[in-house]
Structures are given as structure tokens and as C-alpha cells.
Amino acid sequence: MTEYPSVETIRQRLPYSANALGFDDSQYDDVLEELRTDETERIETWGSVVTDQERADTLHDGSDPRTAFEEFEVTQKVDGRHALRTRRETERTRHRRTRNSDNRFDLGGGSRRYQDRTRRRTLPLPGRPASDVESVTLIDRDIELEVDQDVYLESSAVLVLDRDAPVHEWPQGRRNVEVTYTFGSDGVPVRIRDALVDLVHVRLMKDDTLPVESESIDGESVTYREPGELLSSVFGAVLSETEESHRGGVFSA
User: Fold this and answer.
1) Coil, helix or strand for 197?
2) N or C, which end of the chain has less CB nearby within 10 Å?
3) Distance, CA of 6 to CA of 70 (rounded, Å)
4) Where are the domains of the chain?
């Protein structure tokens, strides 16, 4: 499992040396470790997820909500009304009559592609990435679909009904499809690891006690974005890793 960058990695990627900031190596490592801890907690808060089944316990016992940067099994009631319409193209033979030289009619063959009527066969899951779908139940109809036979997971984000499933499309309604599946990433995504380095960078730039406002350190030119711009970019990266697959929000009940 990939973890957050170490202090050594962060130090290598920052444009500031210990001497340039007035520290010895040990002091600089202590500062970076403190900032690493603070900013890891910030990312975990931004990327926190509370699932339906955990919400009551989490809110009452004060425990930390999980994040999308670990894998865990969830059972959720999904709105069937959010199903998306899909089209299927088919190729059919079309016969046409032509008059021949004997003044008789011949049937000529030809093919043409047609689009079937759209059906709501694709249902976005509330979070991504998703994997290992355990069960799918249509609550109102008391039907349990066979995973990988009646329904299958596509692009780690949506459930697609097979054309031979017991239902032709997802039934419309609220919280009427119960799904048990594995949610989250097996480790911290690359963009989030990069975000931690950026956040530590922001903290160094905003610390009035550190000489990091100059445009050069140790004679080397340093280019960086404004703290506000960098924070917005990092926040966007975290949200994009934990957003709902079809509407751009985090898990909620």
C-alpha cells in the first residue's frame, strides 16, 4: 500500500535547503515532520467519507470518518432515479424490391444500423473507485440481481444491467437499490501525495518567521504559486479523488 511521502521525500522536493532557512538538518526535519503531520490531517479531513451505515456511530462516538484513500466494504441505498439512459446499436437486414430485365421483382439484401429505444441501464455508484460488488438488491421489488450475470461493474464507477436481467432498466425511486461493494483506493493516489508536498510548501511560504518570500535562495531562482492559489488547487485534487462519480460530491447519506 502506498503511503504519504516521508519527510525525506518532502525535503528533496522542496526548493529550500536547511541552511537557507536558518536551520541545521535536524531542526529542518523536525519542522517538516510537524508540517507533514498537520497537512496529512488536513487532507484526511477534506477527503473524509461517512457512509450510510457508519453515519450514526461516527457522529455519536466522535471517531474519525474514513477516507477514500483506503479500501473498505460499504452497503448503501442508491437512488434508482439517477440511472442514465443508454442506447444500443444493432445491425439489421433490410430487404428492398428491384425490377429486373424480365420485368419481375427481386429482393435485394442490405444492412443498416439502427438504435434501439433508450433504457435506464446504467446506475452511477455514490463513490469511486468501486470494486468487488458483493450484492445488488432492488428493494421495492424484492429482487436480488446476480452480480456478473444480471449486473456488472464498469469503469469502477457504474453498475450496468445486462440485457437478460430480470428487469429491463433500473426502477425509478429514492434509496430503492441496495448495493454492497468495496469503496476506496488501495493506497494514497499520486495526486494526493503531490498535494501533501504542496501543502507543506504553502505552510513554509506563509510562516513569517522563515525567509522564504525572496525570489532566490542560495543563489537559485525559486518559482512558486501564491498560497491561496495553491490551496485551491490542492483542495480540488482531493475532492476529485473522493467525488461522487456522477455529480461531484463526497459520500453522504
Assistant:
1) helix
2) N
3) 18
4) 7-69+187-242, 72-183
